[in-house]
């Protein structure tokens, strides 16, 4: 696979990585449940429904902001941090997957990743994420993999190498 990293690819990958984190899922669940819990608590104290909702307006607004702003702000700050750390983030990438492992080449570096270092792989609508060690993720934009007609071969290779740790979609180009 040969491709330049686009802004949309990087944002889609970081969003997929952020959404896969268990603490993000728990925080979003808590933000959803918090207003209902607070209103129920007020109702159990004898407040009327209208007063209970009005008295908990802060929690309702806080939860809505958390639900709709937490992930986008996290993605935005992560993108900014990654770009500060690597000013040449958008350079062309060459990713080769073979029997020995994964080779990542760019104008700045060459990295060989043996299959033993790859922990798992997952797929979203926009990217294929390959988790390497602790905290490292290689992302492959699906639009690039599809355009080079390699999605089925990539899924097959990852399933063969990772077994049940390859959480990939079934079928063709999707």
Q: Give the strand order, joined by hyphens, for the main sheet.
A: 1-2-3-4
- As residue ranges, the low-confidence spans are none
The number of helical runs is 6
Order of helices and strands: EHHHHEEEEEEHHE
Major sheet description: 4 strands, antiparallel
Distance between the termini: 17 Å
- Overall 3D geometry? elongated
Please give the share of residues in helix: 40-55%
What is the number of beta strands?
8
Radius of gyration: 21 Å
What's the pLDDT, averaged over the residues? Answer: 87
Structural class: alpha+beta
**Strand content bin:** 15-25%
Topology:
Elements: E1 2-4, H1 7-20, H2 22-44, H3 49-55, H4 57-85, E2 92-97, E3 101-106, E4 110-114, E5 118-123, E6 127-132, E7 136-141, H5 142-147, H6 151-162, E8 166-167
Parallel strand pairs: 5-8
Antiparallel strand pairs: 1-2, 2-3, 3-4, 5-6, 6-7
Helix pairs in contact: 1-4, 2-3, 2-4
Structure description:
The chain has 174 residues and is α+β, with helices and mostly antiparallel strands. Helix content is 52%, strand content 23%. The chain has a four-stranded antiparallel β-sheet, with no helix packed on it. It has a four-stranded mixed β-sheet with strand order 7-6-5-8. Helix 1 packs across helix 4, helix 2 packs across helix 3 and helix 2 runs antiparallel to helix 4. The chain is elongated.
